[in-house]
Amino acid sequence: MASFADLLRGVNSRIGFNAEDPDRSDNNVDQKLSFSAKPKKNINLDMERKVEQTIGDDFTTDQAEKTVSKLKINHGDCTTTYTFANDKMAFDAKGKAVDEDGWRVDIGAAGEVKQADKKWKVTGSLDIKGSDLGGAKLALNAKADYNEKGAITVKPAVNIEVADEINLGVSLKSDTKAVQEIWPQLVYKPKDNKDSFYWARVDVTRSWLMLGCDQKLREGISHSFEALYGYGKDFKGIKGQPIVIRGGVNYELSEQTEVGCAASIGDTYNVGMDVEHKVD
């Protein structure tokens, strides 16, 4: 049973879309070096160094280096993660509270601090999954953030799986005074074609309607495409029309090498490609 965010997580990564923060614009990554190790069965260590391209207000370019190290420990019914990056430190813990009669409940707590920016936040989370709702399955996720300004942000999301083919869900974001984000979503996974699925989702806040498909052509080859229609009066896409097309492809060339490419065409266009090679 997939959660709301997990259903299209791979698609969003492939097409280069940040569904959690659509207004966010990340720097292009020029190069990235990652190291992963498993010194013990219950311990994972990940280290990453990347060089990003930054663009100033006068459109001059520069490079910025970022580093991050993560230590993840599985304690059995609880998992803890420690993050040390060049711009922040973070801690995350998640544990199993209930796992019986078709129900699974996990609770979590997290915190992060950005010393240079004098920012911090703490987070509480609740994940509920139920597999016996009259033939349907339920996944409910809720997070609440509290930051240095005293602001509270609540992010609930629910997904209901019907007859193993249709997933209906909605995601919200609120400051407890008003709702800032509303994302209804429908995902159709046909039983007779396990390698393809289709979706429709709406960003009510920005007045976007999105329709897309994902296809696994064969082992190691995946394509994702999405058409966006902006039904707000000021939205401009291709040739001034309220349409944006975006897509992404992923090819596993070997067990060590993988190539990905993403493109978006609207009022402007962007194209990016990345190559990943693993050395064991």
Q: How does this structure look, described?
A:
The structure is a single chain. This protein is mainly beta and 280 residues long. It contains two helices and 17 strands. It is globular. The mean pLDDT is 94.
Could you write a compact summary of the structure shown?
A hairpin with a 4-residue loop joins strand 15 and strand 16. The longest helix has 7 residues. This protein is mainly β and 280 residues long.
Please specify the SSE layout and strand pairing.
Layout: H1 4-7, H2 9-15, E1 28-40, E2 43-55, E3 61-74, E4 78-85, E5 89-100, E6 103-114, E7 119-133, E8 136-147, E9 152-162, E10 166-174, E11 179-188, E12 196-203, E13 208-218, E14 221-230, E15 243-252, E16 257-265, E17 269-277
Antiparallel strand pairs: 1-2, 2-3, 3-4, 4-5, 5-6, 6-7, 7-8, 8-9, 9-10, 10-11, 11-12, 12-13, 13-14, 14-15, 15-16, 16-17
